[in-house]
Amino acid sequence: MLNNNILLYIVNNELLEMKDLVSFLLLFTTVLLSFPSSLVVALRIHGNFNTSNFFHFVTKFGFQKTDVRTSERGFIFGNISSLHPHGKQKVLVTLAVLDRGYFLEYYGNKSLANKSRACETMFKKINSVSYDSSCNQDGVEDFLRSIPCTKDGLCLEEDRPENVVDGYQFTYRIQDYLQSRFWYVSIVACARNKTTCKWEPVIDDVELSYDMWLVNGNPENANKNLLRYQFSCDKQDLLGLYLLLLFVFLFLSPIQFYAAIHQNHNITKFLAVGIFIELLGLMGISIHQSLFAINGVGFPLLGNLGDILQILSQSIFTLIILLLGMGWAITRQEITCKFILSTLWILYTLIHVYLYFWKKYEIDIIQNIDEYQTIPGVIIIILRIGAMIYFLYALKDTMLHEFNEERLQFLLHFGAASLVWFIYLPIVAFVAFQISALWRNKFLMGISYSVNTFAYIILVHSLWPSRSHQYFLLALQVSII
């Protein structure tokens, strides 16, 4: 009877701990849902502009290299109208679509205090190449539009209506046979005097509403590539990766839940929870990306939530690696520093989430940098290296107290594999510095997702019921943490 009571007490404690973990996840999700969805910029863009702000950066978009065989090109099209249609109709500002070579000088001069000088210097380099029917008929670039467009009509520069996408007021056709590149869209309260051909600041109060699409491909073509059409060049084909990984985890999650049911130890339950959270994260990201492929907006809040769930999943995976390194379920059934380890893990997770949102604001979209070239990204690398050092210290201590030759060999191989998992991110982040910004994001995402997925598969295989008894103490009836 006493043994049964002890067993019942331990099982109840175990259930309570699992309930605590579930409660933490629910609270975590509730907090995440309170964050604004505006953290993700959609590439069908709605917004307003008022001349009191002088300059408004709209977005950056990577257009792919024009296909010589099909002349497939990028398009920017949309509508821009005045919010006060009965006001001053002749007051115009400028929409500028520029590649990086022209944009940086233009953008760098926007902050000049003298707005007359600012307008002149911003467009100094652009003037020599941008076509203007009154001031530069020899111009070869179609960079500028005077906005707002006429009511129920086209923008002034659209002198060939057949080139404008049906139902819209302006169209840019981005054609580059040499390379893919980023283009920058902005609105500035400057207007060209058609008599003097000088740029002057707009003094009048003008408020505009814009609705733009930026796409890779012809919007009038019925056969669009959904993995590429709505996406900037640096994000193309990632939807295919997300869907592939989603199917992998749809297969992996029930397998690990089966293993957790047949093994009476929390380490397998933690692994099942980590895989399930990864699955939920991939579902959120895949749904957002799939909707984005259709409408250019997606479900940004769900995408953000998916990112955070993946951070939590990787945090749980890190905890599992540390626990195994400390010998839990290998050489010992009880961890003595439970409170300290739990506290450090929660702090580690919350810091990662905080850094995720910090990165959203820290990364300047105008600069061609990735997350690991920012302060939050560097802190993430440092935290990962810190966790790796702690793991190596714990693993060394575990091996000193283990005398079974087979388990020592297992710990040696497990330590080497875990070290690769810890160290790959700093190495990949360093290599990414050498890669063009157009391909860097896909390189980082592809390597990170592949390595993390492979790590989960290896751990599931190692802890599988039919073989785990060789190295792990998972078949016992009583499990304590």
UniProtKB/TrEMBL annotation:
GO terms for biological process: G protein-coupled receptor signaling pathway; response to pheromone. The chain crosses the membrane at residues 21-43, 238-258, 270-288, 308-330, 339-357, 377-395, 416-437, 443-464. InterPro entries: GPR180/TMEM145, GPR180/TMEM145_TM. Keywords: Membrane, Transmembrane, Transmembrane helix. Pfam families: GPR180-TMEM145_TM. Residues 243-459 form the GPR180/TMEM145 transmembrane domain. It comes from the Eukaryota. This is Transmembrane protein 145like [Nasonia vitripennis].
